[in-house]
Amino acid sequence: MKADVILGLQWGDEGKGKIVDLLAPSYDIIARFQGGPNAGHTIEIGGRKHILHLIPSGIFHPGIQNLIGNGVIIDPVIFRQETEGLKETGIHPAETLLISDRAHLILPTHRLLDACYEQSKAEKKIGSTLKGIGPAYTDKTARIGLRTGDLTDRDFRTRYELLKKHHLQLAAAAGISSNDILIDGLSLDAYEKAWFESLEVLLAFKMVDNALFLNRSLERGMKVLAEGAQGTLLDVDFGSYPYVTSSSTTAGGVSTGLGIPPSRIGEVYGVFKAYCTRVGNGPFPTELNDETGQLLRDLGHEYGSTTGRPRRCGWLDLPALRYAIMINGVSRLIMMKADVLNHLPEIGVCTQYRIDDRLSDFPEARESASVFEAACIALPGWQSEPDPALPFDSQPDAFKSYVSFIEKAVDRKISVLSLGAERNQTLMRDRE
Ligand code: GDP
Ligand code: IMO
Ligand code: MG
Question: Phi and psi dihedrals of 189, rounded to 5?
């Protein structure tokens, strides 16, 4: 068996959570491969909204095994909050969730450092979610991090204190004392207390060597779905660096984040919105800083699932989409939130970038260009409501034209069209 993958093709928040939840019943195991509590994956079931940060989006299906992979970084406090929230809705994650014994831990002082580094960047801030992502992945690659498997070691507390001391020295060197910054409204000491108390909850979960577990499961014919967080344009290598997150959000991250070899990756489902959003700073060629941008934000409820920040909104960016499809080897495309565009008379689409006096089909280095613009065209809106219960052929003509225009531009079929946040607001073209 091969493992399939679902990942984001833009700047995150494409709607990955909805799609993982929807496709989960066809799989035995859902495994998150990277990122941490910077993610916010929303699943709406029967009018009730659930937001997951660390726990895979298969958790609402009884009988499906969920796994947090070695590529994920875990803040025990947020993990505890999430498991408690799920219990209130009748879901008991301990029954179906496994955790890698190699996932790195986000320490309270990683969060302190995150805030510290952002402060020192002045107008060049990344717009981090301040969940400690950058500093925790830094320690992972610097080979000084602490992992879930270390929690039961006798010298864990000593190693924790050493790392904390190192972090406080770094903060002090940046001119910041631990008293200057609150973590989710708490002092460092209070957050640390909650952190240690939360370890008990984390330790109640079964820890596994996920590479062994997943490869054996695949050999036994079990179906695995890898769930990505963030999006391709936030990838630490292939995103709009330095305005990126600190993990590999692309298909390569599945191998390093779960221990599944590239030869064992099957379908790669690429999820994108029918327009673009970005939360945080960094380049966004099709951004609309006008009333149309505000309209997209209002109609699409474009406010961050993790931080509540308003998301920047703009038209669909085809050069960036082409690039994301290439980097990930996307085999199937999933277009989300087309319903947000239902009543617009015209819809803009960026077909190329204008770089000085030439046009380009792909993103490329732009630092030296004096002109860098998104070259957009306007397509007619469908000004009606496509019905997900009907086959694609019966949908409004302008809607079908919008879909085929994108398919032609990126040379891939769009297999799934999402027309609302609920499970049943989805048109599965493969099942027609
Ligand atoms: P993720 O991080 O990729 O899982 O996406 P988020 O959950 O951060 O953001 C997607 C938002 O859009 C959530 O509020 C979803 O409930 C919502 N959503 C998902 N699919 C659709 C859709 O097709 N139409 C509309 N209107 N909302 C959707
Ligand atoms: P999901 O999985 C959207 C953005 C932040 C910031 C940058 C770096 O819900 O799609 P970090 O906290 O990682 O240091 O932030 O990345 N970012 C996201 N944007 N969706 C996400 O996750 C994101 N996770 C991080 O806003 O610009
Ligand atoms: Mg999100």
Answer: -60, -45
Q: Which residues line ligand 2 (CB under 6 A)?
A: 8, 11-13, 35, 38-41, 126-129, 131, 133-134, 229-231, 234, 245, 279-280, 305
Please say whether the structural domain 272-431 has been given the CATH code 3.40.1350.10: no
Q: Measured in angstroms, how far is the CA atom of residue 186 from the centroid of ligand 1? A: 30
Q: CATH 3.90.170.10 residue ranges in the chain?
A: 272-431
Three-class secondary structure of residue 193 per DSSP: helix
Alpha-carbon gap, residue 140 to 149, rounded angstroms: 14
Question: Which residues are bridge partners to 147 per DSSP?
Answer: 104
Residue (of 302, 371, 290, 305) closest to 336 by Cα position: 302
CATH 3.40.440.10 given to domain 3-101+206-269: yes
Round to whole Å and give the CA distance between 80 and 89: 15
Q: Which of 70, 24, 4 is nearest to 226 (CA)?
A: 4
Which CATH number is associated with domain 104-202?
A: 1.10.300.10
Encode pLDDT of 364-373 as tens digits: 776 677 788 9
Q: Where in the chain is the domain with CATH 1.10.300.10?
A: 104-202
- The answer, as to whether pTM is greater than 0.90, is yes
pLDDT per residue as tens digits for the range 211-227: 999 999 999 999 999 99
pLDDT digits (tens, 9 = 90+) for 389-407: 999 999 999 999 999 999 9
Measure the N-to-C terminal CA separation of the chain; round to a whole number of Å.
Answer: 25
Q: Which atom of ligand 1 is nearest to the CA of 300?
A: 26
Per DSSP, the residues of 212-268 read HHHHHHHHTT--EEEE--S-GGG-TTTSSTTSS-SS--STHHHHHHH---GGGEEEE
In contact, 403 and 335? CB cutoff 8 Å: yes
Of 170, 128, 156, the C-alpha closest to 35 is 128
- Closest-lying ligand to the alpha carbon of 11? 2
Domain with CATH 3.40.440.10 in the chain: 3-101+206-269
Number of DSSP helices (H) and strands (E) in the chain, helices first? 11, 20
Q: Are 251 and 28 in contact (CB under 8 A)?
A: no
Are 178 and 133 in contact, with CB atoms under 8 Å apart?
no
